[in-house]
Design brief:
disordered C terminus, about 325 residues, 4-stranded mixed beta sheet
């Protein structure tokens, strides 16, 4: 029996794919293919302000060029009717209210939540909206969460248990611009598509408890979660996710698909560094125990391409300083 039936890779289409996108896609894809499960590409194209013409098509082309295929692909923007029906149901249950609070008010009245946002104190809870009213209300809409401890463990061993209402407060489910909020639609779409396994970067780990709570509110069975390491780059002495410096268009000018796949797999420990591979060649030997538990600092150079950043004082670092 398969340990799970269906996973998904769900990139936001607010920019071009970058090395971190390819890492997340590759690990999610290998995780499913290794056990004979299906894997779905879900293109999260709801952000009206940041999704530009061409980003959706470019994301699909970049992943195909890299060597990944999918058992199905979906577009979040095509499911608005289903998203609205779920909000109708929550409004009929008396759990949706309109919020007049500005971001400054939320920051002033709430402590930091685990994901770096500010916990909402529930100031506007009295402003309930009905299933008949909410479409005509221009204000952001929030979902009242009941205080309840959720027991949750990431497959890598991290204990994520906690009370989502206490940690985050009531989440926004429809934004001021009319777009549905990320956590709300992500949970709805996972359930609708039969996703019982979620593999993604550890930057999303702090908000997993909120998504688990939303699954509970909506009466869904929760998927299993695994969060993996990230690619980082150094910016002014700080480490940030590697995406702004290079996208797949630039990578394609320096690397073949096999070179890039082998490099990414090598950086995280799946194969020896320096090898070239097609993703399908990594399926049989895939093992999470071989994937790095620590984030990896990389560097991009138009001449050398994508490489691991050398530690100060390492033989490679000293050799390059002499070149």
């Amino acid at each position: 029996m398969r340990p799970f039936e269906r996973g998904r890779f769900a990139p936001s289409t607010t920019g071009r794919a970058h090395p971190g996108t390819l890492l997340a896609a590759l690990l999610c894809w290998l995780d499913a293919r290794h056990v004979g499960a299906e894997v779905v590409l879900r293109l999260e194209d709801l952000d009206r302000e940041r999704t530009k013409p061409g980003y959706v098509d470019a994301m699909q082309r970049d992943l195909e060029w890299f060597g990944l295929d999918w058992d199905a692909r979906t577009f979040q923007s095509a499911d608005r009717e289903r998203h609205e029906a779920a909000l109708d149901e929550l409004a009929r249950a008396g759990r949706v209210y309109a919020c007049d609070c500005s971001r400054a008010v939320v920051r002033a009245g709430g402590r930091l939540a685990p994901d770096g946002s500010h916990r909402y104190a529930g100031t506007c809870r009295a402003r309930r909206v009905s299933a008949e009213q909410w479409r005509g209300d221009p204000r952001p809409l929030r979902l009242e969460l009941e205080s309840c401890r959720v027991e949750l463990h990431d497959e890598s061993g991290v204990d994520l248990s906690g009370d989502a209402a206490e940690l985050f407060g009531d989440p926004i489910i429809r934004r001021r611009d009319g777009a549905f909020a990320y956590h709300f639609v992500s949970v709805l779409d996972d359930q609708a598509c039969g996703i019982d396994r979620v593999v993604r970067g550890r930057d999303l780990l702090p908000s997993t408890i909120l998504q688990a709570a939303l699954h509970d509110v909506l009466g869904h069975e929760r998927p299993r979660y695994r969060h993996h390491c990230l690619f980082l780059e150094r910016r002014d002495e700080k480490l940030s996710k590697l995406h702004g410096a290079v996208d797949v268009e630039a990578l394609r000018r320096r690397h073949t698909p096999r070179e890039l796949c082998g490099a990414i797999a090598g950086f995280v420990g799946l194969v020896p560094e320096g090898e070239s591979h097609h993703p399908a060649e990594l399926i049989e030997g895939f093992d999470w125990d071989r994937v790095s538990g620590s984030d990896i600092e990389l560097r991009w150079d138009e001449t050398r391409g994508l490489s691991r950043a050398e530690r100060e004082g390492s033989p490679e670092s000293e050799r390059r300083s002499r070149d």
